[in-house]
Design goal:
InterPro entries: SKA1 (IPR009829), SKA1_MBD_sf (IPR042031). Helices cover about 70% and strands about 5% of the residues. The protein contains nine helices and three strands, in the order αααααααβααββ. The protein has helices spanning about 5-30, 35-90, 100-120, 140-145, 145-150, 155-175, 185-195, 210-215, 220-235; strands spanning about 205, 235-240, 245-250. The chain folds into two domains: about 10-75, no CATH class; about 140-250, Ska1 microtubule binding domain-like (Arc Repressor Mutant, subunit A), CATH 1.10.10.1890.
Length: about 250
C-alpha cells in the first residue's frame, strides 16, 4: 500500500472519530439542565424562521401573480390607446354639429310648460258617492225581538252588513266605470245591472242575490234570510220585488 493511501485512510478515520466525539458532546449538552433552555430557544427561533420563510414564499407568489396581471392590464391599455389614437386620426368630416345648450334648454322648458298646461286643462274627477249601510249598534241589537234574533250574534249580523256593503261598492264602481276600460266579463255585468233597474229603484243603491254571490263569499241560506229580517227591522235594507227578482235596497 502506498504511503499516500495510508495517509488518506488515517485522515478519514480521524475525521469520523472527530464527528463521533462532537455528536457525543452534543448529546451530553442536550442532557444538561443548564443548556436545555438554550436548545429550546434555538428550536423555537428555527420554527419562527421557518414560518417567516413560508410567509415570504406566499408573498412572492402573490407579487408574481400581481405582476402578471399588471402586464395584461398594460397590454389592454396600450391596445385601447392605439384604437383611440386611430379613431382620433380618422374622424369623418361629415359628422353632425353639436346643438347649443341654450337651444336644448329652451326646448325642454317649452315641453315642460306644454305638459303643465295640458295637465291644468284636464278636469280632476271626484269619486262618485256610493251609499253603504251603517253597522248595527249594540243598542239596536238589544232592541231586536228575541223571536226574530234567535241565536244570531251581534258579530254575525254586522258581518253580513259588511258583505252587503262590499257587494254594493263593487257593483257601483263598475257602473261608474267608463265603458272603454271594461273587459268583456265586466261589460256583461254592467249590462245585467242596467237590466235589473226599475222605476222603483231609480236613484237607489241596491243589489240582488247574484251580486252577493259574485262579489262576496256569503252563503245565501236560511241564516242569511234570518239576518235580513233583522236588517229590515233595523231599517238597514228594504226589499223591492219584481220580474222574478228580489232587490235589496240600502236604506
Amino acid at each position: 500500500m502506498a504511503s499516500s493511501d495510508l495517509e488518506d485512510l488515517c485522515s478519514h478515520i480521524n475525521t469520523k472519530i472527530l464527528t463521533i466525539k462532537k455528536t457525543l458532546q452534543l448529546r451530553n449538552m442536550g442532557q444538561e439542565p443548564s443548556l436545555k433552555s438554550v436548545l429550546c430557544k434555538i428550536g423555537h427561533e428555527m420554527f419562527l424562521a421557518n414560518e417567516l420563510l413560508n410567509k415570504m414564499e406566499i408573498e412572492v407568489e402573490k407579487q408574481e401573480r400581481l405582476k402578471n396581471s399588471l402586464k395584461e392590464m398594460q397590454k389592454c391599455i396600450e391596445r385601447d390607446y392605439n384604437e383611440a389614437q386611430h379613431l382620433r386620426e380618422n374622424i369623418p368630416p361629415h359628422l353632425p354639429k353639436a346643438v347649443p345648450k341654450c337651444t336644448v334648454g329652451l326646448t325642454v322648458k317649452s315641453e315642460e310648460q306644454s305638459k303643465v298646461t295640458e295637465h291644468a286643462k284636464k278636469p280632476t274627477r271626484e269619486p262618485k258617492f256610493i251609499k253603504e249601510a251603517p253597522l248595527i249598534t249594540t243598542q239596536e241589537f238589544e232592541d231586536v225581538p228575541a223571536y226574530m234574533r234567535g241565536r244570531l250574534t251581534y258579530d254575525q249580523i254586522n258581518g253580513v252588513v259588511q258583505d252587503l256593503n262590499k257587494a254594493v261598492v263593487s257593483k257601483y264602481k263598475i257602473l261608474h266605470q267608463p265603458m272603454k276600460s271594461m273587459s268583456f266579463a265586466v261589460r256583461n255585468l254592467y249590462h245585467r245591472f242596467l237590466e235589473e233597474e226599475t222605476k222603483d229603484t231609480k236613484g237607489e243603491f241596491f243589489i240582488v242575490e247574484a251580486d252577493i254571490k259574485e262579489f262576496t263569499q256569503l252563503k245565501v241560506d236560511k241564516r242569511f234570510h234570518c239576518i235580513l229580517n233583522v236588517l229590515r227591522h233595523c231599517q238597514r235594507v228594504r226589499e223591492v220585488r219584481g220580474s222574478r227578482l228580489v232587490r235589496y235596497v240600502i236604506c
